[in-house]
Amino acid sequence: MSETSPGPRTLEVALGSRSYPIQIGPGLLGEPGALAPYLAGSQVMIVTNAVVAPLYLERCRAALPASAEVRELVLPDGEATKTLESVSRIWDALLEAGFNRRCTLVALGGGVIGDMVGFAAACYQRGVAFIQVPTTLLAQVDSSVGGKTGVNHPLGKNMIGAFWQPRAVLIDTDTLATLPPRELSAGLAEVIKYGLIRDADFLAWLEEALPALRALDAAALARAIERSCALKAEIVAEDETEQGVRALLNLGHTFGHAIEAHQGYGRWLHGEAVGTGMLMAVELSARLGWLSEAEVARTRAILEAAALPLAAPADMAVEDFLVRMRLDKKNIDSRLRLILLRALGDACLYDETPPDLLEAFIAAFPRS
Fold it and tell me: How far apart are CA 363 and CA 280, in angstroms?
């Protein structure tokens, strides 16, 4: 894989008439009119949160044409706010402003904002346009691309939602300069995921590049973001509504979502839970005879270098995991379906894990 310049790059999510660009580069958010080509009409609602607004709301406004009728809604921050009540606040704001079917919503923030704004757009007047402007690494490499939108339910993460594609994704890599280290590590979990499921060469590059990524090196970040988005765009184009190969993007998520739901949304960051979940999936793959102990150790070292947790919560019993995992969206006809690895860089969907083996594995996995 050739070295990527930190300059602007454009990828495409190829979905026929609903194809859209992913723009990646420094300073994109402040460019006058950068969002203008993707607006459905003159009415624009920027939705962000209380952390992001002071940092980037003015820049986002500057990326819109002067002729636009712009309204703003600032929501509270945090995974715990990813609820129908928050989405209802978006609908209230749209209705109070008299916005019509040619309005455009702009999601300015991390994955929580992007998921909620996309879901609000999917439902408002049976579907209006929206644009993703992700400001966290996790949102830039994962949740902003592919059209998955929704909210959490107390019994399960992202259980209420819709597939609704944005008109564009604008990734200003400069926004990562204000990202806290813990959030950066959470985003790196999703970057590592792409190497584990589909690109062993990218995984090998990440092993060397993690110190530079954690130091916010511009060239390394640009390369990681571009490759992650390219892999996701490729998979989404193959399987938009997750009937097959797109499920592989959920490596670690069945275990990770169980951790998030049990602990209470926001206590563990999504990427932290996914990181631990990926290690669980890799170790289970080894128990099934597909991976060597050396490959497990290599995965553990990569996750550790990204400053991700390597143990499950101390207060989670086997049944706590299983209760949440049984609600996973991938399950069909009560069969627990897991994303596992045949090799590093080669993921598969597997629904034949013996229950006794799974329970013994979860019981033996480290806690902290």
Answer: 11
Tell me the torsion sign for CA atoms 91, 95, 100, 103.
negative
Active site residue 153: no
Annotated catalytic residue 208: no
* C-alpha distances out from residue 111 to 79, 186, 350, 357, 366, Å: 9, 11, 27, 34, 28
82 is catalytic: no
State the catalytic residue, choosing from 9, 167, 193, 253.
Answer: 253
CA angle 265, 284, 272 (to 5 degrees): 25
Catalytic: which of 89, 193, 246, 262?
246
Spatial neighbors of 24 by CB under 8 A, at least 6 apart, are 8, 9, 10, 11, 140, 171, 173, 222, 225, 226, 229
> What is the rounded CA–CA span in Å between residue 165 and residue 129?
9
Query: Does pLDDT of 94 surpass 50?
Result: yes
Q: Is 123 exposed, middle or buried (0-12, 13-18, 19+ CB in 10 A)?
A: middle
Q: Tell me if residue 246 is catalytic.
A: yes
Residues 207-263 have pLDDT tens digits of 999 999 999 999 999 999 999 999 999 999 999 999 999 999 999 999 999 999 999
Which of 270, 283, 324, 337 is catalytic? The answer is 270
Q: Which two tokens stand for residue 224?
A: 């990681």
CA atoms within 13 A on the CB side of 126: 0
The one catalytic residue in 79, 183, 226, 242 is 242
Tokens standing for residue 182: 């813990």
Crossing angle of helices 270-287 and 253-263, rounded to 10°: 130
